[in-house]
Design brief:
The protein is of the alpha/beta class. It is about 30% helix and about 20% strand. It folds into two domains: about 80 residues, Roll (Urease, subunit C, domain 1); about 325 residues, TIM Barrel. It starts with a strand and ends with a strand.
Length: about 450
């Protein structure tokens, strides 16, 4: 059976495409026909016609920062439940961080994910650990990772503190064009801390995380990159590539801006919760556990700096940092709460509600941040709306109004600060691997 996606808004920033049109996909999931305007595509009795009625057909969204907890903590999330949450949120692919139990610090862990994800509706890319056990002491086997198709490494949740190890990581990764993804945190400043350091942490009597912690580690890493560049201590065709995970402060953004101007290969991502919320929201919340994450929700000034960085193009991608936890890990004393929230099913809607509708960015730019750029940063194949290309679509209704409830979520966990919030914009489904997966009626 072929599929005809009729009369949609074809929106693909990679091709500078934003127009009304229709696409026919054959029974093997290959694009057969693309027409623009109101021209109809001839259909046979066996074809399924999906009348988009002007809804958006976009290149499949991709989240480059997720935690699916398997292996080791399947009570929070599994590869299957996480994939279902991703599909419901409009994502056709995600990249999984390695801090599972055990840590994915060898090809064996990569093979496990690949084997158990083959039949799932979305692509699961694996980010390998930067060091053995993510302990920051001995580098993981980047070369073996590369041979298994791994394009990035990270000790997410645990920044490398030793500068010598970090230098070696840059040098080793550049040999294989592997991206280094850093969770920027100076651990000595954040030990036993819970939330952003400031007025609201003082009022709550909680130990605070100073926002300079992020910039200190980032500054160290960029100085190392500068040093390696200036002293030509690498093959000029194999330069280090570096990505800042969940950037959250003005100081860190300023460092990224300067690094880009200096010609370093540096990119960064922001999460929807960081461009939407602040530590004041945590202070005023009833269920405070769902507002605790790393990096923490910070000041309104830092949040405004993130919005400006989205406007001016400093930020390269939007990523969820989807981090499921069971209810008992969130509904407990605040100094014992597990860090992180889920985000796959609210990311698109928060981007439309908080950024597009408020004219921070355009809808085309939103698709670039949610789909095109994450794939580009990870050296993944781009998605094109052309005959002969594999069909990989997200179907988006930018005007859909909905309320986030535990019952509406496909994730095994519901630890989100956006419960019971009314949002605008929702994925109606995805088409990937030759199959249509509907999130809502089409």
């Amino acid at each position: 059976m072929s599929f005809i996606f009729h009369s949609g808004r074809l929106l693909n920033p990679l091709e500078n495409l934003d127009t009304t049109g229709s696409i026919k996909v054959d029974d093997e999931g290959i694009i057969e026909t693309v027409v623009y305007g109101n021209e109809a595509i001839a259909a046979s009795p066996d074809d399924r016609i999906i009348d988009l009625k002007g809804q958006i057909l976009a290149p499949g969204l991709f989240d480059m920062h997720c935690h699916f907890r398997e292996p080791g903590q399947e009570y929070k999330e599994t590869l299957e439940s996480g994939s279902n949450a991703a599909a419901a949120g409009g994502f056709t692919g995600v990249a999984l961080m390695p801090n599972t139990k055990p840590v994915i610090d060898s090809p064996l862990g990569v093979a496990y994910i690949r084997h158990h994800s083959a039949t799932l509706p979305v692509d699961l890319e694996v980010i390998g650990a930067m060091t053995e056990g993510s302990k920051g002491e001995h580098l993981a086997p980047f070369g073996k990772f590369s041979s298994y198709g791994v394009t990035a490494v990270s000790d997410d949740g645990s920044a490398i503190q030793n500068s010598k190890i970090m230098r070696l990581a840059f040098e080793y990764a550049s040999n294989f064009d592997i991206l280094i993804i850093q969770h920027c945190e100076e651990n000595s400043l954040t030990e036993k801390a819970v939330m952003n350091e400031g007025l609201f942490s003082t009022k709550l009597g909680l130990k605070g995380i100073p926002d300079v912690s992020e910039a200190i580690t980032l500054s160290r890493d960029l100085l190392l990159m500068h040093y390696l560049e200036e002293h030509k201590l690498h093959d000029p065709l194999k330069r280090p590539r570096y990505h800042v995970a969940h950037i959250s402060t003005k100081a860190a953004l300023d460092l990224v801006r300067k690094a880009k101007l200096d010609g370093l290969q540096v990119t960064c991502e922001v999460t929807p919760h960081h461009f939407t919320l602040s530590d004041e929201d945590l202070f005023n919340a009833d269920q405070k556990g769902n507002y605790i994450m790393k990096p923490p929700l910070t000041s309104i000034e830092n949040r405004n700096a993130l919005l400006e960085a989205l406007r001016d193009g400093t930020i390269d991608a939007i990523a969820t940092d989807h981090a499921p936890h069971a209810s008992h890990e969130k509904e407990c004393p605040l100094d014992q709460v597990s860090f992180g929230i889920i985000g796959l099913e609210t990311s698109l809607a928060l981007t439309i509600t908080e950024l597009v509708d408020k004219k921070v960015i355009t809808l085309s730019r939103a698709i670039e941040l949610l789909s095109v750029n994450p794939r580009k940063i990870l050296n993944l194949k781009p998605i094109l709306f052309k005959k002969g290309e594999l069909a990989n679509f997200s179907i988006i209704d930018p005007d859909a109004q909905w309320i986030v409830t535990p019952e509406s979520l496909k994730s095994k966990s519901s630890n989100t600060p956006f419960l019971h919030r009314s949002l605008k914009g929702r994925a109606r489904g995805i088409f990937h691997k030759g199959k249509l997966h509907e999130s809502a009626s089409l």
